[in-house]
Amino acid sequence: MDRQIPDLRLIKIFVGLCLLSLSPALRAHTEGVGAGGFFSGVMHPISGLDHVLAMVAVGIWGAALGRPLLWALPVTFPLLMVGGGVLGIAGVPLPFVEHGIAASVVVLGLAILAAWRAPVPIALAVVGFFGVLHGYAHGLELPESAAPAQYAAGFVISTGLLHLTGIALGALHNLPKGREVLRAGGAAIAAAGVWILSGMPGVV
Amino acid sequence: MTLAAGVLAHDPALAHEAFGGGKPLFSGAAHLLTSPLSLAAMVGLLASMADAKDPWPIIAGAIAGTLAAVGVMLSEALAYWTGPAGAILVGLVAVAGPKPVPWAMAALSCAAGLSAGSSAQLDVPTWPAALGAGTVVFITTAAGLAAFDALPASARLQSAVAMARRITGAWVVAIGALLGALAVKMGTL
Asked: Residue B159 is part of which domain span?
């Protein structure tokens, strides 16, 4: 074990940056924190159960698959999400987006439940495809928001943090009984996805 | 730096209300710190150059800071996609995670600085405001890269940093591309 004592300079820099983030100077553009601004963007992925479950599932699945997918899945998702976001901003019609988002919850949940050791290209393709659908949904709302730049930054960061949450939960994988807990979590995610999907028009 | 941050965090440090003659300087810094694209470019630069060793933190900070000041002054003249393009470039490099090469680090510092400065969106660019923006970019880049350089040589920590910079790079690309698409749609940032 190579336990290191944290460098005092790093702690000072960290504390300094934390204090700087509290500066009232950062309130110069108040439109960025109101409706349609940064916090609206942050809240958009968090406020929808389908988005939350899918993002967390991406992180858990990546952690369960190990390197390189541990980081490749959370990297692929936002890169492909942008493609979908651009389609949404451009107003390109894409059918069954909401159904696809709900299906992403089911598929990713099942992948965790089954401990699917998907080959790297397949795992990237699955996550990338769903990333396009999630990005499209975000992109559709972008031009209508009051501060689209802040909104976009907010939802990208929020999405990334949900992935990191999933990766952190995926660390259970290394604990005794951790795999069983994660697979049970995958079952719960898939079940929630089926419930979301069943509530959509034209499904049941 | 902690002391300086504490002073700035104090109530009288209002960007648009205080500092009298220093107002444009502070305004330039505040505009840069409240622009998502400027912040994305700065974070992307840190992620793309996390392997840089001394003296590159200072060199990169100086280059990026200077180009940020130039970017602020030329923001009206530069194409509106300059900012997003710079952020996407540094983000992609962070995702790829190549070994640091001097000419590439200089080029990345130029791109990120220009991107950050041109995206600061000052209504009336002035040299004091450009100086304020450039100073913020210089301090952030130099301090951030120096902090990476000072990290303990723990294999686990280095591995975590390598992973974090790739993920952060993807976020930067996403923000840059989305704002670029918006800029194209609206004709401006």
From this structure: 23-186
